Structures are given as C-alpha cells and as structure tokens.
TrEMBL record:
Residues 16-132 form the LysR substrate-binding domain. This is LysR family transcriptional regulator. It comes from Salmonella enterica (Salmonella choleraesuis). Pfam families: LysR_substrate. InterPro entries: LysR-type_TF_proteobact-type (IPR058163), LysR_subst-bd (IPR005119). SUPFAM superfamilies: Periplasmic binding protein-like II. Belongs to the LysR transcriptional regulatory family. Gene3D superfamilies: 3.40.190.290.
Length: 146
C-alpha cells in the first residue's frame, strides 16, 4: 500500500500546474538562437506562470538580483551555487581570407598572441583554451574589438 500511495503522490505532483513568477538570465546569443522557438510552447503549457527573461552576457548575482535560474556558458565561478552541465558547446577559431592574407595564418596557439583577435568574455579575461596534443593550453589573446 505504501508503494501505491507513493506512486499516486508522484502522479499528482506531475499534474500540478506551474504558477507565479520565474526569473531567468541567459546569454544574449543563446537566447536569440534557442529561446524564441521554445518560449511559445513553454508558455502555452504553463499559462499561469509569468516568465521574466533577461538576456545579458554579464555576470549576475543570482541571489542578490532575485534570479530563479541562470544559464551561462563556461566554468562556474561561484561554488556555492548548484550547477548542471547541459551539454558541450564546440568553439572554432576562424578568420576571413583577407585578414589571413594581410597578417598570415597562425600555425600554433602561441602564434595567436600576435594577432588581432575578437575578445569575448569578461573584461580582462580573454584566454582561449586550445587542445595542444594531449593537454589543454590557455593563450592570452589580444584585440581591439570586444
């Protein structure tokens, strides 16, 4: 009987509707690319839930700013938070043919330091991590566009 009661409680819990307010922060590029197609379906399934979405790449204070969930790409800096890996995001290094013609094609990660790279991330923390054989190396790239 106890197992039957637990099964019934699980079924009832799944049938409860989401209601109230839910505040989420996620990176701008991720939100634009992935959220638009999902939000309509999600809101249709949960019409009593008011969702507040902030699309911003800046570091947010999850508790201090009142977020229920924050999605970020990269390593978790605040170890007091609960994190889940949702997947891997492959990164690529690319350049226009005209840039490579003018400045040369880097052959190693160390050569990237000499190039004008697009800087993405928190100010002052522009390290590109590359697989260099059997290890992961970080190269402190520079550039005039961030």
């Amino acid at each position: 009987l106890e197992e039957l009661y637990e099964a019934e409680q699980n079924i009832l819990a799944r049938q409860q509707k989401l209601a109230g307010s839910f505040r989420v922060s996620l990176p701008m590029t991720y939100g634009i690319r992935h959220l638009a197609s999902l939000i309509i379906e999600f809101q249709s399934a949960h019409p009593e839930l008011v969702v507040h979405i902030d699309m911003d790449d800046r570091y947010v204070d999850v508790v201090g700013e009142g977020y229920d969930m924050v999605l970020r790409i990269g390593n978790l800096e605040d170890s007091t938070l609960i994190a889940r890996c949702l997947g891997k995001l492959p990164m690529v290094i690319c350049a226009s043919p005209s840039y490579l013609h003018l400045h040369g094609t880097p052959q190693t990660g160390a050569e990237l330091i000499k190039h004008n790279c697009l800087l993405y991330g928190r100010e002052g923390q522009y390290g590109w991590k590359l697989n260099t054989g059997s290890s992961l190396s970080t190269f402190a790239v520079q550039g005039n566009l961030s």
